[in-house]
Amino acid sequence: MPSSIRSTLGENTVAVRMPLNTTTSASLLTRSQRSLAMGVSSGMRRAGAPTPLFFERGEGPYYFDVDGNRFLDYTLAWGPLILGNGHPAVVTAVTEQLSKAFAFGAQHRGEIELSELMTGLLPGVERVIFSNTGSEAVQSALRLARAFTGRSLFVKFEGHYHGWFNNVLVSYRPHADDAISPLPTCGGQPPHEFADTLVLPWNDIAALERAFDEHPQQIAAVLTEPILANSGSCMPDPGYLKSVLDLCRRHGAVSIFDEVITGFRLAIGGAREFFGLQPDLSVYAKAMAAGFCLSAVGGRSDIFRVLDDGRTIHAGTYNGNPINLAAGIATIRTLSAPGMFDRMHAHGMAIRGRIESAAAQHGIEMATAGSGTVFSVHFGLSAPPRDYRDTLLASADISSKFRLALLQRGLLVLPDARWYIGAVHGDAELTMALEAIDGAMQDLASIDSLQQTTREGSR
Fold first, then answer.
1. Average pLDDT over every residue of 333-342
2. Residue 108: other Cβ atoms inside 10 A
3. Which residue, 268, 229, 256, is CA-closest to 420?
4. 234-260 pLDDT per residue, tens
5. pTM, two decimal places
6. Crossing angle of helices 322-335/340-361, nearest 10°?
7. Which domains does the chain show, CATH number per domain?
8. How far apart are CA 84 and CA 81, in angstroms?
């Protein structure tokens, strides 16, 4: 944490609240908006207080911005940086590959090495295909399922995010009074492009049973995040995911886990290992390549035969890029070290525990949800949310104040109150995080006390 944000008291250091200088970031945003639409490269990055920050470099678990601030990072670049910036194993692997070739547009040994590594580590994954982003890998999984079953419809769940393509960016952020039905999330989504998308409530196995009964022999796939990480880190009810897989098998549909977030994050075997389940297909990205553009679909060998026999295709100039695959191999081998995930989960659970205890100490109602390596904080809820609708009851205003209070203490978290824990976070970072949490929660209590005094004085 920067010296400007920490003060020394004897041998101990305590996170203190300091004014945050964002002058250069604000100036660069103004400049960027003149030529770059939105001023940022992803609409998700526009949210930020007091302004979207511009960064110069990253070092391990720290970001350095253009105004000279250093932040302890728990965003991990929205998930991919599970090893942080500049991990030696990744740097070595990528540098060696850069000296050999940037790209081939043809076969190379790295494809075999990574596919063998994945099929050896991921339970029930017999074959894989590679692409570059989670969004396109989801589309590949749906194409495989449709070609394999000869059906067109697929099920997704309200609040689940599966990328920005029109057929899946459906009912991602509906309002509380919206019906649970296929709804566009933004402009430019003509209804015919999601006409084959069925939207259901999550953690409701009866709703899925009804969908299969109402659309016999028509549903090609059921697509779900195993943990609803994109909308509050809601956990599946006990037995729910297994029931989803069982229904798919009974009705001849392909079960798909979207593990863009949970893959190589919950465990080396992802949600398959974490929950002890084997869906027909899983989609991987983010943590599998430590910040490089790599995604994959893995699963049952027989489903991939639709590619072998030409029933459908999988193509892409950048698929299997040797630089990205070198990063993927190095990342997965590093994450395979004994005890790696135990340490990450312990770190995250310690943070969750401190957030909960600090809130309770100040009489602030809140709950956390998720795992140790990815979780969300919900102010205003007395219990963890079960589904997307539950998350709408949380206070976005208090969450935003908490995030700003953490930022002013040199700790960076995502605007949607999601925390990512990685192998790069150690004991020193945990100490800093816990101190920042204590101070930020004190700020919230002070704000609430001031507002209460103001309300009473106006009577």
1. 98
2. 17
3. 229
4. 999 999 999 999 999 999 999 999 999
5. 0.92
6. 70
7. 1-74+425-459 (no CATH), 88-335 (3.40.640.10)
8. 5
